[in-house]
Amino acid sequence: MADAESRFTALAEGLGASLQAGEDFSLWFSAEESEFIRFNRAQVRQAGHVVQATGRLRLIRHDRSAETAVSLSGDADTDHQRLAQGLMQLRLVIDQLPVDPYLHLERAPWRRHATDENNLPDVGQVLAEIDAEARGLDLVGIYAAGPLHRGFANSFGAFGWHTAHCFNFDWSLFHANHQAVKADYAGSRWDSAEFASRLADARQQLEYLGRPAHPLQPGDYRAYLAPAALDEVLGMLSWTGFSARALANKESPLQRLQDGSARFSPLVDLDERVAGALAPAFGPEGAPRSDVPLVRAGRFAGQLVYPRSAREYGLAANCADANEATQSLLMAAGTLPLDQVLERLGTGLYIGNLWYLNWSDLPAARMTGMTRFATFWVEDGRIRAPVDTMRFDDSLYSLLGDRLEALTVERQLRLSNSTYGERQTWSALVPGALVGRLKLTL
Questions:
Q1: Could you tell me if 441 and 392 are in contact, meaning their C-beta atoms sit under 8 angstroms apart?
Q2: Angle at 427 between CA 426 and CA 432, to 5 degrees
């Protein structure tokens, strides 16, 4: 998709020239050039190359707006024609729509531009390293890599362009007893030593799965949540926790954190960070994103405000996502070195992943979910045996509050592995967490 930015710019200029009196438009551009490689038993089973682009055209007139999605081919004449047809269709329906009382238009002619360097590895190199490191293992996974493009333009003079190159290798190692260890490696620059280290750690955990499982009864246990497990917790929290709309409507799990009646541990600092993130610094409706401090020393520090919420609740907009969920979450590191985690844990649970999370008591920020993929019983600082799948049910005011003992020095970049429709740009940078008590219910 060579020169995608120039083609997008030309499409936006063509739309601007097509407007009639009283009309405004916005155009959101989303595209990818992706290599997909699927593995089974550490062998390539399917490989493909995907190039796709979509334009979301929005027509605004008389406090009304209508939107349509258009598949773009890459051919300039064809794409101009498709957008022109989309504009004609929107004109037929827009006057039939009711006035939108919360329509918020960003009329400032802002500009945002970010294009990173392409430091992605050659596919042949990746395949060679996977083959060398995973030889003899039953590895199942998918490797996805390539540039992601996002663009925005409107008739008020706003223009944004974002290109990010990234990869995501998500895999599982299966034991002969059908148990599995899940691992991943993602980023913008492939580090052979880092990949080898992560696969070696997964291989070592796989060996523990061959031991008889350690039986556990429901109760409270010391636990270490690896970054992948903590990311699941924070991802669930971030979906509505910091939403201005959810907080105003009493639908957020963080009502008590906001009103000051509860707090997290002083170790907890959370931020929505824009600079250097995989996600663009703007959104589909032209809202620029801002850095937002969310939690400082365990106390509520900020919320994510979409333009519609800003208009409805009299707030300042700082978020480009209509769901008011985090796009690029950053959690501050702690002081616990990763190589001392088992020693500090002593006796308890090493939890590599969590699964199927949901709220069991939203006002109390109580969350439930399942352990999965290589949860181990640890005694005297050493892994002794695997643990069968268990359900936990605990409040974040405990896990991230008075029971949080330490966060690791090392943090892990977590990129979304979702490919539903297209590769996504969500990310999080998180440490591991040592907690003094985690409640298992069955």
A1: yes
A2: 145
Dihedral of alpha carbons 329, 332, 338, 343, sign: negative
Whole-number Å distance between alpha carbons of 61 and 74: 29
Among 52, 54, 56, smallest CA distance to 87 is for 56
Which residues lie across from 40 on neighbouring strands?
43
- Residue 282: DSSP 8-state: B
DSSP conformation class of 215: P
* Per-position b or e across 279-306, b if 16+ CB within 10 A of its CB: bbbbbbbbbbbbebebbbebebbbbbbb
**Assessment of whether the complete model's pTM goes beyond 0.90:** yes
* Alpha-carbon separation of residue 222 from 166, 348, 372, 433, 434 (angstroms): 36, 5, 17, 11, 8
- Residue pair 87/18 in contact (Cβ under 8 Å)? The answer is yes
Side-chain-side CA neighbours of residue 196 (13 Å): 7
| 329 vs 414: CA distance, rounded Å | 10
The residue to which tokens 């329906």 are assigned: 93
Tell me the one-letter amino acid at 98: P
- Token pair for residue 415? 């990129």
- Strand 427-440 and strand 328-331: pairing? parallel
* CA 93/CA 89 separation, integer angstroms: 7
Measure the CA–CA gap between 206 and 32, rounded to whole angstroms.
35
Other beta carbons within 10 Å of 262: 19
Q: What is the pLDDT along the chain (442 residues), one digit of tens a residue?
A: 558 999 999 999 999 999 999 999 999 999 999 999 999 999 999 999 999 999 999 999 999 999 999 999 999 999 999 999 999 999 999 999 999 888 877 788 999 999 999 999 999 999 999 999 999 999 999 999 999 999 999 999 999 999 999 999 999 999 998 889 999 999 999 999 999 999 999 999 999 999 999 999 999 999 999 999 999 999 999 999 999 999 999 999 999 999 999 999 999 999 999 988 999 999 988 889 999 999 999 999 999 999 889 989 999 999 988 899 999 999 999 999 999 999 999 999 999 999 999 999 999 999 999 998 889 999 999 999 999 999 999 999 999 999 999 999 999 999 998 888 899 999 999 999 999 999 999 8
8 A C-beta contact, residue 95 and residue 64: yes
